[in-house]
Design brief:
HD domain-containing protein, 223 residues, 9 helices, mainly alpha
Length: 223
């Protein structure tokens, strides 16, 4: 049960946003589909219950919309941003709220924070935690291999070492799936913003560690 309330107008906007996002991500095959969005929203709702100073409407809207302008998913980002602004205007989202949403979804991604950490509002920190939590645990493992296959990356090559210096430009260059655990996923636990995010991440992190250890042992022929 939630500890926050939305106005009837805000609830109507969120319902329209669900439809908008479902349509935009209907054909995604990279692990950033609407099922991912639903999980992020549910995680954001869980964290919201522990962060009373946050704005539930901004959090939920940003959680729903965080991938509709992402270069991993969208070919024409400029057009996607224009369409999103039109959608928000058509649904009478106040300009101040629109700016808050864009401030979050334009700055929360892992790649955007590689070279310098972006300053996010508490609302943005909640959404960032929720999104990163879906990259951890059993589902995180599944999504990592799903995305790796989508990008035609090989699973593993022990002769290719994980990169220790990443930029927004080289982050998505071809690499092995297992290296992605070392270059990003293993680091997320210590990047969580909220106490609830840290709590959930700690449990999901261990699932990743156990999996990669088993994977590498099996690769080397160890029982």
């Amino acid at each position: 049960m939630s500890n926050y309330q939305l106005s009837s107008k805000q609830q109507q906007i969120i319902e329209q946003t669900q439809k908008f996002v479902t349509e935009k991500l209907a054909h995604d095959t990279s692990g950033h589909d609407f099922a991912h969005i639903q999980r992020v929203v549910n995680l954001a709702r869980q964290i919201l219950n522990t962060e009373p100073a946050s704005d539930p409407f901004i959090v939920l809207m940003s959680a729903y919309l965080h991938d509709v302008i992402d270069t991993k998913v969208i070919a024409d980002v400029i057009q996607a941003k224009a369409e999103l602004r039109d959608f928000l205007a058509d649904n009478q989202v106040p300009l101040t709220d629109t700016q808050k949403i864009f401030d979050i979804i334009e700055n929360m991604s892992y790649s955007k924070n590689l070279e310098s950490k972006k300053v996010l509002s508490l609302d943005g920190q909640i959404v960032q935690d929720a999104d990163r939590l879906d990259a951890l645990g059993a589902i995180g493992i599944g999504r990592t291999f799903y995305y790796g296959g989508h990008k035609k990356n090989i699973m593993y090559n022990p002769d290719i070492a994980p990169r220790t210096s990443l930029t927004e430009q080289n982050y998505r260059q071809e690499n092995t799936v297992i290296n992605h655990f070392y270059e990003k996923l293993f680091l997320l636990k210590d990047m969580m913003n909220t106490e609830e995010g840290k709590r959930i991440a700690s449990k999901r992190h261990q699932i990743l560690v156990d999996f990669v250890q088993a994977f590498e042992n099996e690769w080397r022929g160890k029982i």
